[in-house]
Specification:
Layout (H helix, E strand, L loop, with lengths): L3 H18 L16 E2 L13 E3 L1 H5 L7 H12 L5 E7 L3 E6 L1 H14 L13 E5 L11 H19 L3 E8 L4 H16 L15 H14 L11 H22 L6 E4 H6 L5 H6 L4 E4 L2 E4 L10 E4 L8 H14 L2 E7 L6 H11 L6 E6 L2 E5 L2 E2 L12 H7 L2 H8 L8 E4 H4 L7 H18 L14 H11 L1 H11 L3 H20 L8 H21 L9
Parallel strand pairs: 5-6, 5-11, 6-7, 11-12, 13-15
Antiparallel strand pairs: 1-2, 2-4, 3-4, 8-9, 9-10, 13-14
Helix pairs in contact: 4-17, 4-20, 6-7, 6-8, 7-8, 11-12, 16-19, 16-20, 17-19, 17-20, 18-19, 19-20
Length: about 550
């Protein structure tokens, strides 16, 4: 069902369409491109009527009319006031239109929420777009670290929201298992494995030295014993598969604990190289490649890159860029919209990948790349740097031990992805109203408590005659679909966490300052409570955070 905000926008657009028929406004105005503001006024004087909405539409359409904005506003006012959703319409210079909603409008908002339940704010986009959201995609060469956690949470939340608003979405993890880093993993694990049998073997300089590699070697010894001590080179393929499989299992395990899941794991080695997905891209790129000194280059400089990029080296091997292009080509054969959630260390890679897509014949606008900046862990006021598991940077498992999944997810979602972020473990774990995740969950549990205690009185009328603070709370419920639409369009998931923090704050204030049970308006107020509970629960679900009924 359409929310009240959207209904009023539609009413205003229809009024302007009528004005075009009446030649008050020129036909030159394209209604499909009409962009105006309809929002709660930022500043209201205490002695004035509390307006629910204000719009600048009269000033926006003024250039298509001989009338001035105030004259247009008066004409719009005359038509608006006839609608049953609107109680009052006042004007303010130079042409603002201030709107007070009727009691029927507020009841309509509440009924919309309660009738829609889990589907409130869903199916906002009616098209056939199919997304592949690729995120995390960490090399299977060790445990996930805290930086991966942020990208995982943002990607997973985006998948949840896009699905909710009506898109077909695949959550995908790209397993980089064909590059040299896998050779380094095998060599590192081999040394640790042999060391476990008291065979003196020195770790090469460039190998992985973390405790996660010691764990991996121990797991292999536990399951396979001394199988790989003899004729290792003949068994290296099996050893490689075991190493990757065990690390991917551990990665999946830690992601599940973070409430993150994937539909597809695409292997660079199995799905790109072995299925011959690379060779076909050269035919698609033929008008944009050339050979020089035995190497093959992509003419990225023609599209603004600082230099052309090598696809095939002079020794015949591919650069890492080439299978990545093939992978994106493969993704666009399965979906028409791509979202990549990349770490900040990949930001310099964005431009050349967009150019590659254009060279393949795609529109670069069909790919969004979200850059996720670094996270610092703070504990006891100091940066928490070392992992007790890996002996290197802090792992996701360390973070999950230090804080709850709910606190980690919610806190990570309160900042723009492209800003550096300090995750304060002590603050995230606080059990008080000043901690955003606690405040939101507490609001939900309060609503649940009231609902359990409430005994309906069938004789009590529900009239929608709410005070201004309650009306403001109801308006908050109405804007959720607009917030979800904005997240889907901008890919800024922090808009949803900001929304639910504000909603919970408004409800906690309402709860503390309003007599609900036993009041004369008990039935009407309990409809508000039930609707708030529904929206809080649904929003927390979209954020991947639990909604406890008691705390």
């Amino acid at each position: 069902m359409t929310n009240i905000n959207s209904k009023i926008k539609e009413i205003l657009i229809n009024i302007i369409a009528d004005f075009q028929k009446e030649e008050i406004i020129s036909q030159e105005l394209n209604l499909a491109e009409l962009n105006f503001i309809l929002a709660e006024p930022n500043i209201q004087k205490d002695d004035q009527t509390k307006y629910n909405y204000a719009t600048n539409i009269a000033m926006v359409v003024k250039r298509f009319s001989t009338k001035n904005p105030m004259e247009l506003a008066e004409l719009i006012q005359q038509k608006l006031i006839l609608n049953e959703l609107i109680e009052c319409v006042d004007l303010a210079k130079p042409g603002f239109i201030n709107i007070v909603l009727s009691n029927k409008a507020f009841l309509s908002i509440l009924n919309n929420v309660l009738n829609s339940k889990i589907n409130y704010g869903s199916n906002l986009f009616e098209n056939n777009d199919k997304y592949i959201v690729e995120f995390v995609s960490a090399n299977p060469t060790g445990f996930l670290h805290v930086g991966h956690a942020r990208g995982a949470i943002i990607g997973d939340t985006l998948v949840r929201i896009l699905r909710h608003v009506g898109f077909d979405v695949i959550a995908e993890y790209y397993v980089n298992d064909a590059g040299n880093q896998i050779n380094v993993l095998i060599e590192s694990t081999k040394v640790r494995y042999f060391n476990l049998f008291d065979i003196d073997m020195q770790m090469p300089e460039d190998c992985y030295r973390g405790l996660d590699i010691v764990w991996l070697a121990s797991e292999i010894k536990k399951e396979y014993g001394d199988e790989f001590l003899l004729d290792f080179e003949l068994k290296i393929k099996k050893f490689r598969e075991i190493c990757i499989s065990k690390l991917l299992d551990k990665i999946r395990e830690h992601l599940r604990e973070l409430n993150v899941s994937f539909d597809v794991f695409t292997s660079e080695f199995d799905d790109i190289y072995n299925k011959n997905k690379i060779t076909p891209i050269f035919d698609k790129l033929k008008n944009h490649i050339y050979e020089k000194d035995g190497a093959t280059f992509l003419k990225t400089s023609e599209f603004g890159d600082d230099k052309d990029r090598v696809l095939v080296k002079s020794d015949g091997s591919y650069t890492y860029f080439t299978p990545d292009i093939a992978y994106h080509n493969d993704k666009l054969s399965r979906a028409n919209k791509l979202i990549n959630v990349w770490g900040a260390d990949h930001s310099g890679y964005i431009n050349r990948m967009e150019i590659a897509l254009e060279c393949l014949g795609y529109n670069k606008e069909d790919m969004d790349i979200l850059v996720v900046q670094l996270v610092r862990l703070i504990k006891d006021g100091n940066e928490f740097k070392m992992s007790k598991r890996a002996g290197t940077s802090v792992t996701l498992a360390d973070l999950l031990e230090a804080s709850s999944t709910d606190a980690i997810r919610f806190t990570m979602l309160t900042r723009d992805a492209n800003t550096k972020f300090d995750f304060d473990i002590d603050k995230a774990n606080q059990k008080d109203i000043n901690n955003p995740v606690f405040g939101v969950q507490y609001a939900h549990s309060r609503a649940c408590s009231l609902i359990k205690k409430y005994v309906p009185n069938s004789t009590e009328a529900i009239n929608g005659d709410f005070d201004e603070k309650t009306k403001k709370l109801i308006i908050q419920l109405d804007i959720l679909p607009d917030v979800l639409r904005s997240v889907a369009q901008t890919k800024k998931v922090q808009l949803l966490s900001s929304y639910v923090i504000n909603l919970a704050s408004a409800f906690n204030s309402f709860y503390s300052n309003t007599k609900i049970l036993g009041s004369e308006s008990e039935a009407s107020l309990m409809i508000v409570v039930k609707a708030v509970k529904e929206v809080l629960h649904n929003t927390l679900e979209l954020l991947g955070v639990s909604a406890p009924e008691q705390m």
